[in-house]
Request: fold
Amino acid sequence: MKIAIAGGHGQIALLLARQLTDAGHDAVSIVRNPAHVPDVEQQGATALVADLEQLDDDELALRLRGVDAVVFAAGAGPNSGAERKLSVDRDAALLLADAAERLGVQRYVMISAMATDRYDPERAVVPAQSDADVFQVYLRAKSEADANIRARNLRWTIIRPGALLDTPPQGTVDVGRTVPRGSIPRADVAALVVHALVDDLAVGVQFEVTSGNTPIPAALAALS
Reply:
């Protein structure tokens, strides 16, 4: 498979690129900053320099010709402000979906976040009044992006991980429509994406996930 990864310099995306290329697939990592190209290439991926806040769906589609699936792993990141939570975490996810639809690419995997639907609508507004309110805007952005993807005629999977860790992968998880709050290594989130794509699992499923006792392939198969 040839898989495009939006937010290609993110920690999960770099792990994902390495896992995909090690498994014999082609990863195309979309990065905004040309300085990030060497880091992406070090993981075996091909870098595509493109700013998802500046392109339209026609331009992005042209640059993604030949891909079999897309993964949204982008995020505005810490200290980015409320406005960019909407323009990246929400709007860029929809741009990627628009481009996929133009190309006829059906497979879309979204890396979201746990409990995004429980944002406070009175606080999740721009301009934000505090850092806590910025986080509410982030949750709103993720929630609205997920809802938009669910409504499309795509073969989507929405992964909502708990707190992200840089610890080694466990390979076992707890998944469900909702699960108790917990944490999960970033490498295991990447592995979930790989198995969902390569084994074509959890299509049309949105789920929360933390570390647990079920091997990742079996957990995804049960969701499917």
Remarks:
- The mean pLDDT is 97.
